[in-house]
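Expect chain and fold; thus:
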Amino acid sequence: MVSLEVMDKIAPGGVYLCQVNENVSCGACCGLYNITDLSREKLHRMLSERSAAFLKIAREIDAIIEFGENTLAAENETRPYPEFYHCPYIGFIGNNGKRVGCLLHPAAEGNNSVDYRGLSYYGSMTCNIYFCPSYTVLSDNFKRVIRTASQDWYSYGLIITENALINAFLSETEKIIQRKPDEKDVRDNPDFADIIRDFIGLKPSWPFRPVSDTPANYFFNDKLYDKKDADYTKIRSASFTSLYNTIFKELGSSFQADKDIRKAENMIEFLLKRLKKYNKETIV
């Protein structure tokens, strides 16, 4: 892999987010998470099977196109976001096959440095020039905090496109530690790193997300799937709004009882209290 330092210099916004290391990468723009069952186990199994099958096919145009068509037909998915294309050529890549990426990329195993991305739905040009909004919407230090704290492709890809969620939580972090958090905090202090990782872990595990909803994020600007504010009116007064409303909205929340609201607030406050402890221990 090309070093992050090199990629940062050419990435929009100055922080490269796509292929971070051998364990951390993002395939969200390829529609990776646009599937019905978004469990880690299901997604890992699907990508493993795809990757193994793709290794066995001839690197010929007809064979590659047929692989894509057969893969989508066999998976027979009802997409949570029908307008968001799910690419059948995303799989596991890298030296250890532990990160997601494009099976058509010239660096992928078996391709012998040939770029087959022109055979994909959007073509090689889109693959080369598209960067998700996080590149330019998130501040450099916020991007670096999430990038450095992340440990695997699954949770990283789910969180890194969540601009409003990241901004809301790390802005609170900034207030508590009385300065901008950065990647040095993650690298030098295990407690801080654990707090950020627990925040990242809220995305796939949030208990107040309606069963019918998906933890995937539709991050395009066409407003087709805008997120809704949590509705408190059936539980509390019409004027009530939680201090953590933005976080609740971006996580996708539906509260059925007052105890649900209290529990959700306690989950966020627990992370913030740990930050206060970190602040006392590290700020002189």
The beta strands are 90-93, 99-102. The chain is about 50% helix and 5% strand. The chain has two domains: 27-131, 140-150+163-282.
